[in-house]
Amino acid sequence: MKKLLTLTLITALALGFSACDKDPDEVTPTAQAELNRAIVYSYEQPQSFLVKLYGEGSTETYASYDTEHFGISIGAPLNVGKDNITFVISEEDLKSNLSGAYTLKTLPDVSEGQVDVTYSYLRDAHTRSIITSDKSNIEGHFTISAHDTKRHLVSGTYELVIPNAYDPTVDQFTEPNLRRCDISISGSFTNVKVIQE
Length: 197
What we know:
Elements: H1 2-21, E1 32-41, E2 48-54, E3 60-65, E4 69-75, E5 83-90, E6 100-102, E7 115-122, E8 128-132, E9 139-148, E10 153-166, E11 180-196
Parallel strand pairs: 3-11
Antiparallel strand pairs: 1-2, 1-11, 3-4, 4-5, 5-7, 6-9, 7-8, 9-10, 10-11
């Protein structure tokens, strides 16, 4: 009986010590992201605007990293909204540990930037308006503020303006008098898991 009690006590102590040895950081925190978009029709009178804010729980994020690119996409699920923003950085433009501020590849000289930006707006169930930084003038920044190399998590912020853009809510090829607008997009992402490909 004493032997059984001793073994039980040793086992309990071993389990207790192993539990204490576990790193509390092993629990992966929940990913969070927000995306805020405003379409401002400032080139017509009276001025008008469309604003959409996607907070925690109303966005989907995906980040990946391979030998050639790092990319992150933040958007609204189809049942929630219509907006999506994607940032892609080539391997040669990545900073050490990924963290840092990146300039946008945009007109008039895309070779001066580091981040390709694609904004898309779902017009209906089958079509999207797509604006890319290599074909547009986009002002702003993309910053990775933290990269947890152990758990492969990234956090950061972004803010950009697409001035004098075609209205993404309508088809520019079928609308004869398509109005122009300024599109402002900003947001943040926290603890997004980076998939190694």
